[in-house]
Amino acid sequence: MVMNAAEQYRRQQIxxxxxxxxxxxxxxxxxxxxDDGRAFLAEKNYExxxxxxxxxxxxxxxxxxxxxxxxxxxxxxxxxxxxxxxRLVEGNLKSDLAQIDEARGLISELRDAWxxxxxxxxxxxxxxxxxNGYA
Length: 135
Known about the structure:
Elements: H1 5-16, H2 19-42, H3 46-65, H4 72-94, H5 97-124
């Protein structure tokens, strides 16, 4: 199977990205899948809505699985991820845009907090002046 240049470039970006950038990519991907699923649901295209919302659910599941439970914040995030996951499942099953929107809002807040944490970490390491495109 021959990949086009854009696909090869995207794959290399993912393979070479630091962990914090991969987390940001997952947050952004989750938001994209929620947006796509919501749009398909509004069009009453239930099959494509389900496919996209399940992709978002898998990302949330991955977040839950990779938490380091040695930290108190991880227990709080675990409960929040469970709540978001449940909203996505219920919203998908019931075609309830309000539940999907609630999940999206929470993921958006988490993503924005992650971006700020990345900026702060870069600044504290002395990389804050020029920026390196991560946030």
